[in-house]
Design goal:
Length: 78
């Protein structure tokens, strides 16, 4: 069975738990969450302070995690 995942940057002004709950309401089985802030969108990050709230949303909705997005681009990437 094909499962679809809602990407964290689809809702760039939402917190991780809001992304999980939106995914569940929209019928997604999975979400991709960010663990390091993209430069322009810090809201969807699963920070240490958001971990418990995000975990609770995952448990409440039954939505799973597809990927955790983490990337570092430094001066050497330019």
């Amino acid at each position: 069975m094909v499962q679809f995942s809602l990407d964290a940057l689809t809702l760039p002004r939402s917190t991780p738990d809001q992304i999980v709950r939106c995914a569940a309401k929209a019928g997604f089985e999975l979400v991709s969450l960010a663990v390091q802030p993209p430069y322009l969108y810090p809201d969807p990050i699963v920070s240490p302070s958001m971990f418990d709230v995000c975990y609770e949303a995952l448990a409440d909705t039954g939505v799973g995690v597809n990927t955790l997005e983490y990337f570092v681009l430094g001066d050497s990437a330019t």
